[in-house]
Predict the structure of Aminotransferase.
Amino acid sequence: MHQLNPVTKQIQISGIRRFTDLVAKYPDALSLTIGQPHWPTPQHVKEAAMVAIEKGYTTYTPNRGLPALREAAHAYYGTKFDLDYHPEKEILVTAGATHALDISLRALLEPEDEVLIPAPAYPGYEPIVRLAGAQPVYIDTRPDGFKVTPETLQRHITERTKVLVLPSPANPTGVAYTREELQALAAVLEPTEAYVITDEIYSELHFADAHVSLATLPGMRERTIVIHGLSKSHSMTGWRIGFVLAPVEIVEEMVKVLQYSISCASSISQYAALEALLHGQRDAEPMREQYRQNRDVVVRALTEMGLEVAVPDGAFYAFPSISSIGQSSQEFAQALLHEALVAVVPGDAFSTLGEGYIRLSYACEDEKLQTALGRMGQYVARQTSRG
Ligand SMILES: Cc1ncc(COP(=O)(O)O)c(C=O)c1O
């Protein structure tokens, strides 16, 4: 038999997945590993899906997604984030943000291209880049509060740089870029030929009132692909609905990749998404408020434990350094699970630049969060007194 694809052979199963498999062996553990809101999908959205099933809306939709849903996405992201994309030509409905990232990168990349990824990074980017035969190039953001700066960006750009991936707010750190920071990055990008994929899946869980998209800055629209979706904003991770908003020339290429990968997103999920966009403009607000409060609780607790942490601007993750403890991120996470029955994700799941950190998710009830942080505090105190 011929060998299987050597590129897929080299791709590792996500470190998050590996660790959650281990956590499953500790049924009494409190898990702070979760990558989704702990709220249910809004009732009105669930009902719209049930109506769709009953009415028999269970056939293929256009490849690009239901026209009404693209219209709704145009209005929704236009009102919220000042994005202006033509619903027929510049918006695609995808199977989650993951698929949006996949078709974006596949439509752009050629072998040998370089893709800049700020790191520590969400583990979903690198494998897609590698599958396209291109080269991921990590930008070390640790000295700069986990953000790319004009200087670090400039230093990493080469003639082969095809794409910069820019998540804001970011996973695993929760940091987000201000308008001024984006303007400074735009000035570096302007003279280059690089595209930017802005992953804005956490934009509605951005604690600052004004989430800014790079695409809205002068000169950036033609090179920017905006990734959105309902997984986090409407607690719809299992429904698999995402959006690409990009200039028509790029979308024309992407739609071919979409067509031959999934034909279209699930019709029932698209009707649910339509309801979410038409009548759920404020659905994320209570979650955002709770996660903002949880963020404050987490940052205070970690600081009291003596662990350094960048204050998250959004999403529901904190990424403290555990370098003072003298354990690797795997050792720390495994011992914390075993001894204190608290699960967090080892930082090395977010590239080698995540070593020396852990990610904890505060997408959970207050009581669980308090108990887990209390146990973690005791564990850290024991390690510190031993050291
Ligand atoms: C930064 C980031 N981008 C994309 C995704 C994928 O989102 P979806 O579930 O819509 O595919 C996630 C999921 O955790 C994420 O954290």
About this structure: Residues 285-305 form the longest helix (21 residues). The longest strand covers residues 161-167. Residues 35, 96-98, 122, 124, 167, 171, 199, 201, 229, 231, 237, 242 surround pyridoxal-5'-phosphate (CB under 6 Å).
